[in-house]
Automatic annotation (TrEMBL), chains A, B:
Origin species: Zavarzinia aquatilis
Coiled-coil positions: none
Protein name: DNA-binding response regulator
Residues in the signal sequence: none
Gene Ontology biological process: phosphorelay signal transduction system; regulation of DNA-templated transcription
Length: 220, 220
DNA sequence: GGCCATCCCCTACTTAGGTCTAAGGCCTAT
DNA sequence: ATAGGCCTTAGACCTAAGTAGGGGATGGCC
C-alpha cells in the first residue's frame, strides 16, 4: 500500500448488478491498474477472497443476502482478518456508520456520496487509513428514533393512553375522542400530553407519524 | 423502439450519483443515440423536463429527496402527463410495483435485476409498453380505490402545496415549514388550508395520514 | 388592451392543541 | 393505614392550527 506497487485487487459484493457496475467504473476511473471481482452474496465474496488469496479490499453492501446486518461483516472479518473491508449502504445514520467501524470495517461509504468522494474514500482505505463521511466524535445527536426505540416507548403507555393514541392516529379531534370514550376533553388533553412526553415528541402530528411507523392498528 | 428514429432523451432522477452513473452506462450500451440528463431530486427532474420539452422517458427513484413515496410520482405525472415514467427502487415487493403502475408509472425496475433485464425493460417502455418484472393480473385487492382517490387528489395540489404537505407529513410545524421555504407562517397556513380542502379532510393530522398512505420508505 | 383564472403571499381573527397546577376517587401492594 | 399508580377533571394560560378575505404577479383568452 505504498502506491509504487500497483495492481490492486478488489472484491465488490453487492446484490445489485447496477451498483456493482457503477462501483467498478468508479474504481477504474480513479485507480489505473485494478482488478475487480464481482460477488452477489456474502458467501460468494468469502469464496472469492479464499480463491484469490491476496485481496487489497472488499467492498461489502450492508443489505445483502447473507449479511444479516453486521453479522455478515463480523463473519468476513473472522475469516480474513487481514483484508480491509469497506461497508457500503444507502443509509446516512451515524450510529450505523460508527457501529460498522466498531465491527472492524475500515470505512463506511454512503451511496448518496458524490463519485469523487467515493473514489477518495477508497483511495484512503487502500492506503491503510480509516474513512468516515462524518467527524469521528460528533455527538450523534438525539434523533435516533428507530423502530425498536418507538416500540419500547409505546410499551410504556397505559391502556387508556394507547386508546387515545389510536384515535389520534385515525385523525380524530380531542373533542371527538372525549365523546367516544365518555370523558371530558380536559382528560384527553392530559392523556395527549402524557403520550407526547413518553414518545419524546412535541406535537400531535409527530406522535401520529411515530404510531403509524409501527403500523399501529386500531384497538377499539 | 424501431431503431430508425433514434435520438432518445432520458432524464435520470436518483440521489445516488453511483446509480445515475450505472444507469447511464446501461442506457448508452443498449441504445445507440441517447441523450442522458441527470437529476438528483424530484424538483431537478421536473425542471429538466420543463426545460427540455420533448423527453422520452423519466427514470425516477422511489426513495429520493422530494419523493415522499408515491407522492412524487403523482406530482410528476400531474406536471407532465405525457412523459412516461419508469420507477426504480431496491424493493422487490409486488404490491409496491403494482401500486407504482396504478399511479401512472410505465414500468417498475428493481435495482436487483441484472443489467440485461434493465436494458430490456427500458427498451420496452420507450416502445410505449408497460413493463413489470411480474405477471400483470393478481388483483392485489385491498384499498386500491381509496389510494387511487388520494393520488388523483394529490395531483390537484400546486407544487408549493406538495412541498408543504411533504413537510407536514414529516412532523414539521407551520413555523418550521415557513422558515425552510423562506416565507411567512401565514402563507404556510394558507397553503395548509388549501391542502385540507383539496384532500377533503378537516385537520392537519388527517392530511398527514392520507399523505403517508402513499408514502413507502424502503431501507435498501 | 381588458378579462379571468391561478397561484402565491399576506394581515387579522377564531378555534384547537398543549402545558401547568391542583385535586378527588379508585385500585393494589406494603 | 399509607403510598403509589392510573384515570379523571377544572381553570388559567400560551402556542399552534385553521379560516376569511384581500393584494399582487403571472399567463392564457376574447
Amino acid at each position: 500500500m505504498d502506491g509504487t506497487e500497483s495492481g490492486w485487487t478488489v472484491v465488490i459484493a453487492d446484490d445489485h448488478p447496477l451498483v456493482r457496475d457503477a462501483m467498478r467504473h468508479a474504481l477504474m476511473q480513479s485507480l489505473n491498474d485494478v482488478q475487480v471481482v464481482d460477488a452477489s452474496s456474502l458467501d460468494e465474496a468469502k469464496a472469492a477472497v479464499d480463491r484469490l488469496g491476496a485481496v487489497d479490499l472488499v467492498i461489502l453492501d450492508l443489505n445483502m443476502p447473507g449479511m444479516d446486518g453486521f453479522t455478515g461483516l463480523a463473519a468476513m472479518r473472522a475469516a480474513h482478518p487481514l483484508v480491509p473491508v469497506a461497508m457500503v449502504s444507502a443509509t446516512n445514520d451515524e450510529t450505523v456508520m460508527r457501529r460498522a467501524i466498531e465491527f472492524g470495517a475500515a470505512g463506511f461509504i454512503p451511496k448518496s456520496a458524490p463519485l469523487e468522494t467515493i473514489a477518495e474514500a477508497i483511495g484512503q482505505i487502500l492506503d491503510g487509513q480509516v474513512w468516515l463521511p462524518i467527524p469521528r466524535n460528533a455527538p450523534s445527536s438525539g434523533t435516533g428514533t428507530s423502530r425498536q426505540d418507538i416500540a419500547s416507548r409505546l410499551g410504556e403507555l397505559t391502556p387508556q393512553q394507547l386508546k387515545v393514541l389510536s384515535m389520534m392516529s385515525q385523525g380524530l379531534l380531542n373533542k371527538q375522542i372525549a365523546f367516544e370514550l365518555g370523558v371530558g376533553e380536559a382528560t384527553v388533553k392530559a392523556h395527549v400530553t402524557a403520550i407526547l412526553k413518553k414518545l419524546g415528541v412535541h406535537s400531535r402530528t409527530q406522535a401520529v407519524i411515530s404510531a403509524r411507523l409501527l403500523d399501529f392498528k386500531t384497538v377499539d
